[in-house]
UniProtKB/TrEMBL annotation:
UniProt-recorded name of the protein: MFS transporter
CC per GO annotation: plasma membrane
GO molecular function, one term: symporter activity
Top-level taxon of the source organism: Bacteria
Keyword Metal-binding assigned: no
Regions that span the bilayer: 37-59, 71-94, 115-135, 141-162, 183-202, 214-239, 260-288, 300-325, 337-355, 361-385, 447-471
Length: 551
């Protein structure tokens, strides 16, 4: 009875055409490069502050302000645990808020951008450098915790934007890739410029420029904050929200569900649990490495230039990988790509731990393979979050973008907390000496090298296990979910959409092979599918239709 969906390409192309027809509605600009560039600039702003804080906050407070690494690490742990709770709370509040003509998520993001960038600047002030230690700790804690709060208020709606910009799977891969490019460009600038600006060589040793009481961090923080604000403004004026679910679809008997039920619903999904576990492990590997690599390059290898070269290589890897992301994900699926990437990261870091090299260039080669692993994961992870949001809607008939994204962000914050605490404890464990002009012993350097390679390697391995064992969204499962939602957007209920897709020829295990039929259909079910097909214009594979004999 008409058209058969026999390939993944067919499912994707129908979704694209359906999305295009929605975007061509009056006053709605079609998805295009403006959205991609805008979303990339938004993540440039986010990661410019995030990477700066993740890499340099601990260095500023241990080397300039003289705060012990254990205290800074404990702040990371406690603040991130609190921040994780704030993420979920913000997500629920945003999902339950009313829509806005300018887009619910875009407007919410911009409301909190100004205080966020201001706090990003205030965290690196040195006016209390000669004050008592408790004053330094109080100022450090207040500014960091408040910054984390505003970061949640901006990052949750920004991250939720991806699932509303387009419903097409390929568009979402493009958005995920562009978002990661924005963050990587921000990281490149910081990775290359910041070490050269912040460090200088004195008597053969790398020390903080300006010595004790330096204002170099305040200057760099001001530049970072201004650039981040510009990135958010570009995002706001160039991104359009197009996907608007039925406002009543998340209601139960006419009433909105409770916040607790919304959170439980998200975390009870296997796809959410899988991505949360994988993200937590990967973030520990990535951020622990980010925080300690600068110490390794400057203290173990004695070269701030190596830190800059490392940042440049990381960006070069991104540009090498980007052209292959879309075709590889279409061929193998996002789960397979991320599983391979995390396994590669584990091998690279554990091999560096085993060989114990003291050659900076050999270490850089190992770092390059780690960058391939990180890019393989990070360039598609944001599209995987939208896959999870789709999966929950297909299986639970609820769509709560901000709540789902906040649950993922919860895992990221836990990962950041664990990474920060481990980094602080590791510095104390290896006997690291604080101070802008301090020189480390040979034993400290050796121990620093060991923890900087072993810990990321172990957590890359855990990421692989989480993806392979827990996360269920294979390439075929994602295509099935996309097709169910495409059909559902034609005014059907979830049950009706799943029934229609079943007879359309696509199943939860993938696209039915060409020529297959449903041998023993439920005739009541088949009659319902025929009625839905006639109502929506979606062709089905009718085992009793005229085309059945031809097959």
């Amino acid at each position: 009875m008409g058209k058969t969906h026999s390939t993944a390409k067919a499912a994707s192309s129908e979704t694209a055409s359906d999305t295009a027809s929605e975007a061509s509605a009056p006053d709605v600009r079609p998805f295009g490069w403006r959205d991609k560039i805008g979303y990339m600039c938004g993540d440039f702003g986010t990661d410019f502050m995030f990477v700066f804080a993740g890499t340099w906050f601990m260095i500023f407070y241990t080397k300039v302000m003289g705060v012990p690494g254990t205290i800074v690490g404990t702040l990371f742990l406690l603040a991130r645990l609190l921040d994780a709770v704030m993420d979920v709370t913000v997500g629920v509040v945003v999902d339950r808020s009313k829509d806005h003509p300018g887009g619910k998520f875009r407007v919410t993001m911009m409301r909190f951008t100004a205080p966020l960038v201001l706090l990003s600047f205030l965290m690196y002030q040195t006016f209390a450098i000669d004050a008592a230690m408790w004053v330094k700790i109080v100022y450090m804690s207040i500014t960091y915790v408040v910054w984390c709060f505003f970061y949640s208020c901006v990052n949750i709606p920004f991250g939720s934007l991806a699932s509303t910009i387009s419903a097409d799977a390929d568009d979402r891969t493009s958005l995920s890739t562009m978002r990661s490019m924005g963050g990587t460009i921000g990281g490149l600038i910081l990775g290359i410029v910041a070490p050269i600006v912040i460090y200088q060589k004195v008597n053969g040793h790398q020390v903080i420029r300006g010595g004790d009481g330096t204002h170099i961090f305040s200057i760099v923080a001001a530049v970072v904050s201004i650039a981040a604000f510009i990135g958010y403004v570009i995002c706001y004026f160039n991104v359009t929200e197009r996907v608007h679910p039925d406002p009543d679809q998340n209601a139960k008997e006419g009433e909105k569900r409770s916040p607790v039920h919304m959170i439980v619903n998200a975390f009870s999904s296997r796809s959410m649990l899988g991505i949360v576990a994988a993200a937590l492990s990967l973030l520990v590997a990535q951020l622990f490495s980010n925080q300690l690599m600068t110490y390794v390059y400057t203290d173990v290898f004695g070269s701030a230039a190596l830190a800059s070269i490392s940042g440049l290589l990381g960006t070069a890897v991104m540009f090498l990988v980007v052209p292959f992301v879309k075709p590889l994900t279409k061929r193998f699926g996002r789960k397979t790509i991320c599983s391979f990437a995390s396994a590669l990261g584990a091998v690279a870091m554990l091999l560096l731990f085993v060989i114990q090299t003291r050659n900076g260039m050999v270490f850089l080669i190992g770092a390059v393979f780690m960058y391939f692993a990180l890019m393989g994961f990070n360039l598609v992870i944001w599209a995987m979050i939208t896959d999870v949001i789709d999966d929950i809607e297909v299986t639970r008939d609820t769509r709560e973008e901000a709540t789902c994204f906040s649950c993922y962000s919860f895992a990221r914050k836990i990962g950041q907390a664990v990474a920060g605490e481990l980094a602080g404890l590791s510095l104390d464990w290896v006997g690291y000496q604080s101070g802008a002009t301090a020189v480390q012993s040979t034993a400290t350097k050796a121990a620093l090298y060991n923890v900087a390679t072993l810990v990321p390697g172990v957590f890359f391995l855990l990421t692989f296990v989480c993806l392979a064992v827990i996360y269920p969204l294979s390439r075929d499962r994602v295509l099935y979910n996309v097709e169910v939602l495409r059909v559902k957007r034609k005014g059907l209920t979830g049950d009706e959409a799943r029934l229609l897709v079943k007879y359309e020829g696509i199943t939860p295990t993938g696209v039915t092979p060409e020529g297959s039929t449903i041998e023993w259909p439920d005739f009541h079910e088949l009659d319902k599918a025929r009625e839905l097909s006639a109502r929506t214009g979606v062709a089905i594979r009718d085992p009793q239709g005229p085309a059945a004999d031809d097959r």
